Amino acid sequence: MRETLSGQARHAGRRMVFPLLAAGILVAAAGPARALCHIDWRPFIMGQPAVMYMTVAREPCRISLYAGSHSRYESLRLLERPRGGSVRLDGRTGAVYTPSPGFAGPDRFVMGLTGTSSIGSGTSIITVEVDVP
Fold first, then answer.
1. Domain residue limits at 105
2. Does residue 64 lie in a domain region?
3. Segment 54-74, tens digit of pLDDT
4. Domain count, the chain
5. Which of 20, 39, 49, 78 is 20 to 30 A from 65 (CA-CA)?
6. How many CB atoms lie within 10 A of CB 2?
7. How many beta carbons lie within 10 A of that of residue 85, not counting itself?
8. How far is CA 45 from the centre of its chain?
């Protein structure tokens, strides 16, 4: 019998098989002052709200938005600015968050992305919860 990955654990003396977990993007620079950019998110349905989580320290961190291969983005707007940093919109599909010098703690910003995809259309309100360690 061939083993495949599944969400079920095998018991009674058999090998246990667990699902693979997806991780976000991690970019780190070596040295005493490490830069950190970690983004945890999942593709979303256009027209539905979405939440993204970001951990960032010292350097700008870019988010690339993706709602499926058949998506067309019409506009990206910043609806709520962060308090502990700044956001620069990067075209219609991305944003760059930069923490203010000396800032540490939670931050957040909100974007509105309007477009269409194969399973939805409209404006998605995307909340980005930021942690600056």
1. 25-132
2. yes
3. 999 889 999 988 756 778 889
4. 1
5. 20
6. 3
7. 19
8. 14
